């Protein structure tokens, strides 16, 4: 690990000011890694230890829990502070009752030790687990070093993505919770280094790889995520997260599905569908939702929805099994959600 | 950097490189080698310690960031010549290890698992202990030990 400058921010304004001191010159900010906020550290320290990340400065933001660690609900929806820990959100009574898909996506992620450390903000920003990205002894990785190529295309890629990929990168977004935020139409609240706030749709936070896979998100350097807002809706109670893994517990998803349904007499009034484990960024499938609207939820409509979700899938050898795994995961999730008692 | 660590009820002042993890500070500087280094990458659970009673991974915690907390390691569960913690006793009685390398992490994780209320069935114990890998696969006996200790920890 390379040495770094370490600072502990006592509050939000201090954290933003410290980050602003380390901003790189315009144009280079995304290549020269600027100062990084240290939340739980479970992804950042990992990447620093394996030589993938070498930020010049770390700003510890755990003290910002005071300001941004709360979980609140009201009639308009759920507000999750970005500094709340995964374990707290996973067991929050209102989340369990009204947004079961969110609770499940967190309960099924990582281990209890990691969930006690990791924050919701850090969780959504975790980077891909692509083996070549995580091992600097491989030269070709456009995400780690722009312009070097992609070793995964013809290599070990059974964990990697089939939706949203480009000819420059087929990395998967590995997280669980973010897929639920995308599916439920959440918004992210962001503070920039001068303290001004902006809100964007969660679906707009992450970027597709395109020809710049080294840029994961639309956050600007120094920006701080302070919360996620999930709108209420008649579909959130009938919601679930189904995660399929190589190991039964403590593993990343090979495929996962988020389903939230508003049913009347078995007919879909409104649906929210997300996918994980095989997507390039947190994924909402508007196509899968459209295929369900107004139809009775049964095996046939679930299959039609899954077919629509994977229309654009692109595979690369080893991961050719993933579209079918993804379709079956979504079909099962839809039928399970339809059978839920709410 | 100068840091002040509160480990098992004792304060230790030491100068560390900013990169030092809590795991390395415990093992290399304070000679508390009960906490084990397995993967050093957050994957195995061998380095589990309690921070203010909460189980965390010491390999992903910077020593400088652990200064405010009360840190409990395996050495802090029972003083010398004092009775063992019920979880330590249960691991002995159930023979819940072979080589013992994962055991300190298992025991601290298991204590937290019971205290969190996540030890209500064998299935739940397996799920909430899944962050502690055991290369010797003593898993069935670990589950039995957690169940035994839970009864004692929670009283009649
Ligand atoms: C063995 C293992 C298994 C795992 N399994 C899973 C799994 O199954 N599912 C899953 O979803 N995840 C899994 N994870 C990933 C884990 O959930 C993430 O590492 C964790 O959620 C990151 O949160 P953190 O607070 O520790 O982030 P950090 O490591 O502190 O930060 C990550 C990044 O986000 C930035 N950041 C953090 N907070 C903010 C903020 N508020 N505003 C702006 N930037 C911020 C940091 O600067 C850094 O770049 C696993 C990790 C490990 C090590
Ligand atoms: S898939 Fe993306 S992250 Fe993996 S090697 Fe290719 S460019 Fe790098
Ligand atoms: S040494 Fe920390 S999890 Fe393996
Ligand atoms: S007893 Fe040997 S690793 Fe668990």
Automatic annotation (TrEMBL), chain A:
Instruction: Please indicate if the UniProt record lists Lipid metabolism as a keyword.
Output: no
Q: Which InterPro entries match?
A: CO_DH_flav_C (IPR005107), CO_DH_flav_C_dom_sf (IPR036683), Diverse_Substr_Oxidored (IPR051312), FAD-bd_PCMH (IPR016166), FAD-bd_PCMH-like_sf (IPR036318), FAD-bd_PCMH_sub1 (IPR016167), FAD-bd_PCMH_sub2 (IPR016169), Mopterin_DH_FAD-bd (IPR002346)
Look up the signal peptide feature and give its range: none
Q: Which residues form the FAD-binding PCMH-type domain?
A: 1-235
Gene3D superfamilies hit by this protein: 3.30.465.10, CO dehydrogenase flavoprotein, C-terminal domain (3.30.390.50), Uridine Diphospho-n-acetylenolpyruvylglucosamine Reductase, domain 2 (3.30.43.10)
Domain of life of the organism in this record?
Bacteria
Q: Which UniProt keywords apply?
A: FAD, Flavoprotein
Pfam families in the cross-refs? CO_deh_flav_C (PF03450), FAD_binding_5 (PF00941)
Known PANTHER family for this protein?
OXIDOREDUCTASE (PTHR42659:SF1), XANTHINE DEHYDROGENASE SUBUNIT C-RELATED (PTHR42659)
Q: What is this protein called?
A: Xanthine dehydrogenase family protein subunit M
Protein's organism: Belnapia mucosa
TrEMBL record, chain B:
The UniProt entry, under Gene3D superfamilies, shows: 3.10.20.30, [2Fe-2S]-binding domain
Q: Which InterPro entries match?
A: 2Fe-2S-bd (IPR002888), 2Fe-2S-bd_dom_sf (IPR036884), 2Fe-2S_ferredoxin-like_sf (IPR036010), 2Fe-2S_ferredoxin-type (IPR001041), 2Fe2S_fd_BS (IPR006058), Aldehyde_Oxdr_Iron-Sulfur (IPR052914), Beta-grasp_dom_sf (IPR012675)
**Which stretches make up the 2Fe-2S ferredoxin-type domain?**
1-77
Q: Which SUPFAM superfamilies match?
A: 2Fe-2S ferredoxin-like (SSF54292), CO dehydrogenase ISP C-domain like (SSF47741)
Keyword Ribosomal protein on entry: no
- Which UniProt keywords are present, listed alphabetically? Iron, Metal-binding, Oxidoreductase
Domain of life, per lineage:
Bacteria
Pfam entry (one): Fer2
Residue stretches in coiled coil: none
PANTHER family listed in its UniProt record: OXIDOREDUCTASE WITH IRON-SULFUR SUBUNIT, OXIDOREDUCTASE, IRON-SULPHUR BINDING SUBUNIT-RELATED-RELATED
Q: What is this protein called?
A: (2Fe-2S)-binding protein
What lineage, starting at the top, does this entry show? Answer: Bacteria, Pseudomonadati, Pseudomonadota, Alphaproteobacteria, Acetobacterales
